[in-house]
Amino acid sequence: MAPATAAGASTGPAAPRRRKSVTGTRRTVAALFLLPALVLLGALVVYPIGYSLVRSFSNASGDGFAGFDNYKALFTDDGIRTALKNNVIWMVFAPTVATALGLVFAVLTERVRWGTAFKLVVFMPMAISMLAAGIIFRLVYDQDPDRGVANAVWVGVHDTFAQSSAFPKAHPGRDSPLKPDQGGFLTADPVHTGQSVTLPLVGVAPDQMPKSAEQAVQATPEPGKITGTTWQDFTRGKGVGRLSVVDPSEPGYAGMRIEAVKGGTVVASTKAADDGTFTLPASADGALLRLPASNFKAPYNGVNWLGPSLVTPAVIGAYVWMWAGFAMVLIAAGLAAVPRELLEAARVDGANEWQVFRRVTVPLLAPVLAVVAVTLMINVLKIFDLVYIIAPGSSQADADVLALELYRKGFSEGQPGIASAISVFLLVLVIPVMLFNLRRLRREVRR
Predict the structure, then answer these.
(1) Mind listing the pLDDT tens digit for each residue in 138-187?
(2) What's the structural domain count of the chain?
(3) 328 and 268 in one domain?
(4) Is pLDDT above 90 for 18?
(5) Which range marks the domain in which residue 76 is found?
(6) Alpha-carbon span 147 to 141, nearest angstrom
(7) Are 357 and 254 contained in the same domain?
(8) What is the 3-state secondary structure (H, E, C) of the chain?
(9) pLDDT in tens, 210-238
């Protein structure tokens, strides 16, 4: 029996060996190296998520259970509903526009010599912080055309086709023969041929006068005609100058329109010369002289970019300015991997450049475009800085987004329970998008 036992002992299965990883590292050692990262992950990610979830079911003070009341507020509070609506707008338009611009830039820069320099310029905003970008665009969207670039361009284009008046603040002074009339001014008494009429006005700053304006001249009466002068009846210096009298250094209202009105009908009209003088024909005899409202319309001041109706599109524009370069770089990398033989084959088959772009380039880039768009969707769900900085206080409620509303509820309004519910809701919105992105990335790896 002893030999059998010895033989059995010698031929029995070997003791199990400890398994190692692919790199040859023992699992215990690997776990020890991962431990610091896992601790940080738990402290900075897992614990805050868990605490926010618990806090979202608590009341404002945190010492009582509120049930689902905080989550009900997400759909009943007007501010949160506005933020949710704006987040939907952000998710639809911001990634779409940024991705589309990135695609266009990536395709076009392949065909020019200075494509690398152009890509550098487009990508440069990514190096700017959200805070700095917000300050920049707060100035860009300033209502004053002298400071805001957007309105300066807009006003310049508008004034090219519809010139603004040079006398928006002009009005009659004391003892003036002019009276207000439908936004303009009308003489109290009719005028007659052979008469020289004075139409004095005040209220136009010297630097706002037309550049062609010259020193006003008292018009000379002419038989069979009505003459007159319209001018700035103001001379600088205390006690200098006489009312309703053309004094030296007082400029004429160059280009001022004058109408002769009889029974509500305009029978004659003219424009003042550079020295303010004007002449009307004999048909104006017995008429009232009117300076129409078109002389005094306020200058076009541009668009209120940061008003309630346009503030969200304006902030999205700032976001696209920052992130179009990011989309361009990723799409350009995908475009570099597209086989050129396919593009050349399409051209040989008779396809024009638009058809090659639409039916060959875009379908081949579809995986990259999807990754870029989904990544930007995740990013816009967390947008906070640009909205907080660019939108002024008067329209910030109209530009509200969920991240900004979370900040308000948690720190300004003292409702941490609702703020935690918003954070959990944001997490729920982000998770499906992240899973979609990860699944697509795994598919690409398998290929």
Answers:
(1) 999 998 888 899 999 998 888 777 766 778 888 888 778 888 888 889 99
(2) 2
(3) no
(4) no
(5) 69-153+305-446
(6) 9
(7) no
(8) CHHHHHHHHHHCCCCCCCCECCCCCEHHHHHHHHHHHHHHHHHHHHHHHHHHHHHCCECCCCCCECCCHHHHHHHHCHHHHHHHHHHHHHHHHHHHHHHHHHHHHHHHHHHCCCHHHHHHHHHHHHHCCHHHHHHHHHHHCCCCCCCCHHHHHHHHHHHHHCCCCCCCCCECCCCCCEEEECCEEEECCCCCCCCEEEEEEECCCHHHCCCCCCECCCCCCCCCCEEEEEEECCCCCCCCCCCCCCCCCCEECCCCEEEEEECCEEEEEEECCCCCEEEECHHHCCCEEEECHHHCCCCCCCCCCCCCCCHHHHHHHHHHHHHHHHHHHHHHHHHHCCCHHHHHHHHHCCCCHHHHHHHHHHHHHHHHHHHHHHHHHHHHHCCCHHHHHHCCCCCCCCCCCHHHHHHHHHHHCCCHHHHHHHHHHHHHHHHHHHHHHHHHHHHHHHC
(9) 888 899 999 999 999 999 999 998 887 65
Domain-located, residue 26: no
Residue 58 belongs to some domain of the structure: no
Q: How many angstroms separate the CA atoms of 431 and 421, rounded? A: 15
**So what's the pLDDT on residue 269?**
93
pLDDT at 398: 92
Q: Are residues 436 and 314 in the same domain?
A: yes
Q: Is there a single domain that holds both residue 285 and residue 315?
A: no
Among 231, 265, 295, identify where a domain stops: 295
Kindly report which listed range (228-232, 301-305, 332-336, 442-446) carries the lowest average pLDDT score: 442-446
Residue 191 CB contacts under 8 Å (≥ 6 apart), including other chains: 197, 226, 228, 260, 284, 285, 286, 287, 288, 289
What pLDDT does residue 77 have? 86
Q: Which long-range contacts (CB under 8 A, 24 or more apart) does 61-65 make?
A: 62/416, 62/417
Are 208 and 245 found together in one domain? yes
| 367 and 273 assigned to the same domain | no
pLDDT higher than threshold 90 for residue 16: no
% of residues, the chain, pLDDT over 90? 42
- Does 123 fall in a domain? yes
Same domain flag for 341 and 285? no
Helices 115-123 and 78-108, axial angle in degrees (round to 10): 170
Residue 356 pLDDT greater than 70, yes or no: yes
Last-in-domain residue among 252, 267, 295: 295
Residue 3 lies in a domain: no
CATH number for the domain harbouring residue 82: 1.10.3720.10
Do residues 254 and 280 both lie within one domain?
A: yes
